[in-house]
Amino acid sequence: MATKEKIIELIDKNQNGIEHLIDKKIQIWTDYVLFSGLWWMGLGLSIIPWIIWFVIRKKESTDRLLYIAFYVMSISVLLDIVGDQIGLWHYRYHVIPVLPTYFPWDITLMPLSVIILIQIKPNVNPWLKAIFFALLASYVGEPFFDWLGVYEPKNWNYSYSVPIQIVIYMSAHYLSERNKFTKLNPEE
């Protein structure tokens, strides 16, 4: 059994190696990615859809929709980090080099797709919307970013994403229908 000191030494050595690789990644990003066409596309995809949503959103539902958007962002970022770290996929042309995820996908495209689908035609069966969302994200979004060279599925098949996307959409839909919020009392 390894001693505490040996474990600390191994973890610190590993961390130093990771930091060295991140420094290399930032240098590559600075030299080759920053201000490239795919970097500008990623920056645009991070900002422009939010501006469009802000204009077309259902104003009286803004808080509820943002609540859902932050939920979808959190799940997307978490799953993307796990997938990247265990080698299922990786991204190139990061908007922000130290994030292992593709910022436009997790922070803009996923959450906005979900909240727009929730907002539009609210009486349509949510399972149909979830399947539509999952198929669109898995068989259009992922292959498109793969084709551009931004996304590299290494040990991942687009079909694996379908059930995950359905669960993300259905859980977001469930949360969107919650209404048991009490006003905060400033005197408590």
TrEMBL record:
Keyword Transmembrane: yes
Keyword annotations of the record: Membrane, Transmembrane, Transmembrane helix
InterPro entries membership: CBO0543-like (IPR048147)
Keyword Hydrolase recorded: no
Transmembrane feature ranges: 38-56, 65-82, 102-120, 127-145
NCBIfam families listed in its UniProt record: CBO0543_fam (NF041644)
Name of this chain's protein: DUF2878 family protein
Organism: Neobacillus niacini
